[in-house]
Amino acid sequence: MTKTSGSLLVLALVLFIGVSQSLFVVHETQQIIVLRFGDPVRMHPDPGLKVKIPFLEQLKVFDKRVLNADPPPEEIILIDQKRLVVDTFARYKITDMLLFHQTMGTEEQARMRLHNLINSSVRGTLGNATLPDLLGENRPIIMGNIKEQVNNSVQRFGMTIIDVRIGRADFPAQISQSIYARMRSERDREAKEFRAEGSEVAQQIMSRADRDKTVLLAEARKTAEILRGEGDNEAIAIYAAAYSSDPEFYAFHRSLEAYRIGLVGDSTTMVLSPDSEFFRFFGTSSRR
Question: What CATH number belongs to 67-170?
Answer without folding.
Answer: 3.30.479.30
